[in-house]
From TrEMBL:
Keyword Calcium tagged: yes
Organism expressing this protein natively: Capsaspora owczarzaki (strain ATCC 30864)
Residue intervals of the EF-hand domain: 92-127
Molecular function terms, GO-annotated: calcium ion binding; kinase activity; magnesium ion binding
Protein name per UniProt: DNA-dependent protein kinase catalytic subunit-interacting protein 2
Gene3D superfamilies: EF-hand (1.10.238.10)
Keyword entries, A-Z: Calcium, Kinase, Magnesium, Metal-binding, Repeat, Transferase
């Protein structure tokens, strides 16, 4: 219990437990780990430090993830805890869907338009690109157009969050 008190007040721990999918013990362990990661500035991870974390380094959306969980280009413990919580196994499918939508909404307009889908597909194919097996521009464009054609329920050439939720409701592996 003394270790808990040296990091957080009881009120802070209760708030973290309420706002995340972690237990008190997990929060303390995450904090201890977070502090070992902060090389440049105590209690803050720079964008570059976050990009090199094993959990993020190979993700083709790492810059989008950092932007969503950090307002100023650095990541505080609370930002880091939120990020880990959303991507944890305990997070609900709805929470994961909300974050995925924000990640894929590259232009931040609240919809997934053609360009958002194109950019998302292109990023998802980054491993193939590294192996020289990348999709051609026309193929990516065709896939993006096909996704819109098949899923845009109100024919406005963009996907709302509700339309996105409908798509992922048919994808049982989405939240895994």
């Amino acid at each position: 219990m003394g270790q808990t008190q040296s990091y957080f007040t009881e009120e802070q721990l209760l708030e973290y437990e309420d706002c995340t999918y972690f237990t008190r013990h997990e929060i303390i362990k995450i904090y201890e780990h977070f502090m070992t990661l902060c090389k440049t500035e105590p209690g803050q991870l720079t964008k570059q430090e976050v990009k090199t974390l094993p959990e993020v380094a190979v993700n083709p959306f790492k810059d989008r993830i950092i932007d969503i969980f950090s307002d100023d280009g650095t990541m505080s413990f609370e930002d880091y805890l939120d990020m880990l919580s959303v991507f944890s196994d305990q997070a609900t499918k709805d929470v994961k869907a909300s974050i995925a939508f924000r990640i894929y909404d590259m232009d931040g307009d609240g919809f997934l338009g053609y360009q958002d889908l194109y950019d998302t597909i292109e990023r998802m194919c980054f491993r193939a690109k590294e192996k020289g097996e990348q999709l051609q521009t026309q193929e990516i464009a065709s896939i993006a157009r096909q996704i819109l054609a098949e899923t845009d329920m109100d024919s406005d050439d963009k996907l709302s969050y509700v339309e996105f939720e409908h798509i992922i409701s048919r994808a049982p592996d989405f939240a895994k």
